[in-house]
């Protein structure tokens, strides 16, 4: 995943669609210092959850990652992530009406790891009895709804593909 994030950083800075800090430009890196194992464990304890392996790997590489363009969400440091219901309860309420209540129930248990105060969220949805694996959603009201990814790597590969197409 480190290589993929490096490639995204290089392409995003090359494209220059977004304003980056001088440090990001000089280092050609949109990430930050890694989260420590203790920080990860404390956040898991606070949220009463064990993160999926790929998200733990991401945090061990970078504790946050700037948006590579104006479309993708920023991935936040773990001290800022929380359950969506604690950050945007109105969204959950809006998607809990008849006909789309299944989306509302997924949003109710989701953890927002990216896009706080942005147009799109990146959400992790823990497994349960009806869905035994983690879900990875990019979610926007204007879309509307969710775009599901198999995992973080598939999401970041899609971002890199988009950046490559934008440069061509």
Automatic annotation (TrEMBL):
Transmembrane segments: none annotated. InterPro entries: Knr4/Smi1-like_dom, Knr4/Smi1-like_sf. SUPFAM superfamilies: SMI1/KNR4-like. It comes from Winogradskyella echinorum. It holds the Pfam family SMI1_KNR4. Residues 34-165 form the Knr4/Smi1-like domain. This is SMI1/KNR4 family protein. Coiled coil: none annotated.
